[in-house]
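Researcher: Please translate sequence to structure tokens.
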Amino acid sequence: MGRTGRKRAHKNAPSQALDHHESAVNLRRFMSRNGFNDESDLKLRNFPQTGRGVAAWRPLHENDVIIRVPFHLLITYATLTSSNFPRLFVPTSKLTIHDLLAAFLVLQRHKTNSFWSDYIDSLPPEPPWLPALLSEERTELLPVDLKLAAKKSRRSLEESWSRLARSIRSDWTCGCCGKNADRVIDLHSFIWGYVLVNTRAVYVDPETIRGECDRATDILSDEPCMALCPFLDMFNHSDDAATRAEFVRHEGQLFYQLTTLTGSKKYRQVFISYGGHDNVKLLTEYGFFIPGNCYDSVPLQVEEVFQVFKLVLDDFRYKFVQKHGLNKSLFISEAGPSFNLKALLFVASDTSERKNLASVVYNDSYPESFVKTTVRMCHKLLYFHAEKLQSVLKILQDLELDSLVIDFLRYRLDLMKKLCDNKQ
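Model: Translation complete:
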């Protein structure tokens, strides 16, 4: 699940109330009319470090329920199939749940009298910014790992639009205005819906969703494992939050429930966890990053390693690296070099005639002489990577690229300095 924002660091800074805003008031009323009971006394606030978020006006203890939303207030596959929405598509269509939820959002925003209007009005009117929305030319300027992630996300968006565009029936017209489908769902509106689903959807148990469907459709090509949950999508993510999300029966009714595993003091922002993601994942999928993210690291490309140390592999060692995938998942974190990076450095720099490479690598029985040099080798890689990143950063600053990317790259430079200081 997710919601976009700027860089985040959850400090105890003053916040501003947002509950009096018309869209927030209307959303609350909509949910209350439809069976939502705010047991935790949650308040929408604007926090200096994270933007819009949620605070609890009472203390939350371990295993307390943070929020419990009635199932019928979630937009799920069951929601889509219980309406006339599937008639928008030709029967032979094969669409993902992401495709369908994005199209459903667009259609509900277009309608003049939708059941979901108060929820739609609480959403941002323009698609939140993500690196996938950069032009191809600017994407090419990004550091390799961020560039690859942005390209992957962009491909997913483009493929989603392509599937949807060719699946919409040419004879479909809107019931509220009589417009053809291509005037209701165009590329711009679809990007809005797609990005909102990408940044706000929660994972749900597909078997539970199927069990709640009155009828099904053959157009779904994957699992119905995504849903939109009003108000729950206002919560911000923290890398150290611990929560449990599940469907529960309460007083005979099905709810989507979020429970805290740690608790928090009253008036403090309540954070939830989207999963153990590093900052590249958070930035490309959700549009923010967390300074000090415990899952963060400095990624390296195999070409960089060989360039820095002028390494050359003989045939035996090359095949060993390829067979064991030691050219992938190369990074340095506060814990030191990744397993693969350490193994690659050893295999490529070892000048002995040993043939028991697997025994050394997988038993962590590296020679003492190699262990003593790993800190120095990591330093050299970090310095090299930092120089490259500074060059990229200067180019992007000159182009006045989105400040979020600039802030992220500056943060990464600080992270590399910190890692070097920690390895002295």
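Researcher: Any highlights?
Model: Confidence is low (pLDDT under 50) at residues 1-12.
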